[in-house]
Amino acid sequence: MSTAFIDDLPVTRSCLALSNDIMTRICQLLPTQKDRLEACLVHPVWTSPALSVLWDEPAFDTLDQLHQLLSVLREKPRTGSRVRHLRLHTMSDGQFEDTIAHCKYTGNDSSNNGNSNWAAAPQTILGVLRRCEQLKSFACYGFQLKTKDLEAILTLIPSVERLWLLGSPAQEPPAVMTPLINAVLPRLTSLRLDGVYTFQRQFYAVLARRCLALRSLRLSLQTTQADDFFTLCNGHFPALVDLTLVHVQSLRGSHVKEFMRAAPSLTHLRLEGVAQQALSEITYVSNAYFALESFTIVGVIPDSAPVTSSTRLPHLPCFSPEQLTTLTLGQWFMFDMTLLDTFANSPLQHLVLSSCQPLTNENLIHIFHAMNHLQICTVVDPPVECKPFLERYAVHDNNGYTLNRADMDRINEHTVQHRTLTCAHLRALAERISMDLQDLLNIIDETQPGRIAPQEITADAPKNRAQGAPKEKEEELNDLPAWGAIDDLTWYQKPKPNPSVTSSEGSSISGPRQPIPADAYSDQECWGEAKRGVEWASEQLSYAHDMLQRQKAAVFWKKDDETGQWVQLPNNPLPATTTHDTNTRPPSKHNTPRIPQKQTNHPDYSAPQKKQHYKPEAQSSVSPLLLGQVRKNHQNHQNHQSRQSRQSRQNHQRHPSPPDDPLPLLKRQANP
User: Fold this and answer.
1) Which positions, given as ranges, span the membrane (predicted)?
2) How many CB atoms lie within 10 A of CB 314?
């Protein structure tokens, strides 16, 4: 945070009216301690939340900064009550792994690192803790600590939840965890003891039964007995997700298996100092644990006897843990490729090889070829023979040589330069390799599962797409039976409809269609598999076409209920004309019109010699569209006849006309 930024801040009432919690959250998002210090100078209202965040976790990189911290705490003791997280060492996690954890695990040769460091003195540590009694997490050197010093430290910080001790004494006997420490264990969420300590059996019992909130644990098993370790295996760690075990020369696969049962939520496992004879068995058991996400093996101790094929475990099956994404191998004095073959089928994405001196170029090529899911490979401190090979393909930085998936494919020679192919190129390629063009396109489509290629029709498409064409839904075909169910191919080339023969829905029926010529498309168009259609020369379509013509040429008749006459149904509705009906009384044997024996030219009706009902030869092949049109015309004709009948009655009442047959009337006049 620069001074110009502070000067430009809008010191308004709304900005100063923010609550203390909001201002605390804003100050926590500031990146450095310098920015938090300058936030205290903006306004007196901001001073209190900025100071609480500034002293929440003091950070320093050198011993001079640590000395300044002690001076401030000595002058202003109340400032120490704001501290919640404190690290009395100048080492980060990465530096600690490089200087302390990476050792031969045969003794405490790394413990001399902090003997001459005044920050590791018990007087310095106790002096700081007397002024910072509200600590939630605490980390310090443990090279000069004894049992009484540990008791005093835990007495001064009773509310601590995360404890980290770096190193243990070299000359003095290891510190003993007393019952006072057992009272602190149940509330710890993180315990890291980077050194050799002597644990009583009561410590393992409390750790196994009462540490239900423990999420991270790091222990050394150098002084641990087998019975004590099985006490941990019989415990319960429901929240444990990160486990680091150091000096595990006596550890075997059965031990790891039993401990994983006690920690069902374990996702990160780190083993340091594994014996070579137990390496394959431990890897087998760890790989079978499907919840594991990160697995690290550092410092493999070689056996006295050389490694042979008989000492390996070739009968172990390959598991595929669903969550394992990171594998770290460090300080391997031997490199067994059969061990890495166990992870070939796992979804491993990141592989770290650190200080593996037996590593060769052939081993790297085998790893990149076998692990298909691998995305990043990091090689730290490789052998001299591998450096030219890695410098050619990998990116070098402070973390080592990093290769991504593209670099691995270049090594395996699995990729070539991207090229753009046109339709002409694909045809030439199919001819050169003597393969059908559609088969070649299908192979290309299979290599691109996420791409939907555009559709295209070729001259030989009906012959080659029968196997791979999609199956149409049955209910869609039933909507338009016979000729209406055919998949129209007019989406590519739309022919002009034939006005002579059309259906009610506008679909043209023009007989067999000609195949699309080969020059109907150009090289600039996209390729793809054409839609499936039915050939117009098929027997089914020809039969449907003939039936349609017969239905159109047929004549339909209907018997009128009022007149009893047979009326021919027209194709189109009759025009609305007015007729006079002379029949004013209900029909009887006297006034019922007689049907002539011969067909006349009467405009209203015509009668055949025999009653004929149209019965199609194949009822299943009649188009429902045509039958619907017939029913519609019939209904229109009935409505027309009813309107004519009602209009005739009304006209007769107004202007009565003499009957057609005067004989009954003359008889009634003669015989009154």
Assistant:
1) none
2) 9
Angle among Cα 539, 540, 542 to the nearest 5 degrees reads 65
Is the torsion defined by CA of 173, 178, 180, 182 positive or negative? positive
**34-74: pLDDT as tens digits:** 888 888 888 888 888 888 888 888 877 777 888 888 888 88
Within its chain, how far is the Cα of 355 from the centroid?
Answer: 36
Cα–Cα distance list, 370 to 118, 282, 364, 365, 549 (Å): 51, 21, 10, 9, 68
Token pair 């990476």 in the structure block, residue? 102
Which ranges of 60-178 does DSSP label H, i.e. alpha helix? 63-75, 93-96, 122-129, 147-156
- Contact (CB, 8 A) for 240 and 215: yes
CA 458/CA 557 separation, integer angstroms: 50
CA atoms within 13 A on the CB side of 105: 27
CA 218 to chain CA centroid, nearest Å: 34
Nearest of 214, 252, 247, 212 to residue 230 by alpha carbon: 252
Beta-ladder partners of 351:
327, 377
Distance CA 515, CA 504 (A): 26
Q: pLDDT for 87-138, tens place per residue?
A: 887 655 444 444 444 443 333 434 444 445 777 888 888 888 888 888 999 9
180-209, pLDDT tens digit by residue? 677 788 889 999 988 777 777 788 888 888
- DSSP, res 484: G
Return the sign of the alpha-carbon dihedral for residues 431, 432, 436, 438: negative
For helices 201-209 and 226-233, give the axis angle rounded to 10 degrees: 10
Which whole-number Å values give the CA distances from 390 to 327, 358, 368, 382, in the listed order? 20, 15, 13, 9
How far, in Å, CA of 539 to CA of 541, rounded?
6
In 527-601, DSSP assigns E strands to 556-559, 566-569
For every residue of 151-192, DSSP letters joined together read HHHHHH-TT--EEEEE---SSSPPPB--HHHHTTGGG-SEEE
DSSP per position, 649-665: HHHHHHS----S--HHH
Give whole-number Cα distances, 133 to 80, 183, 193, 214, 363, in Å.
Answer: 8, 17, 21, 22, 54
The tokens of 110 are what?
A: 């790394």
How many whole angstroms separate alpha carbon 577 and alpha carbon 375?
87
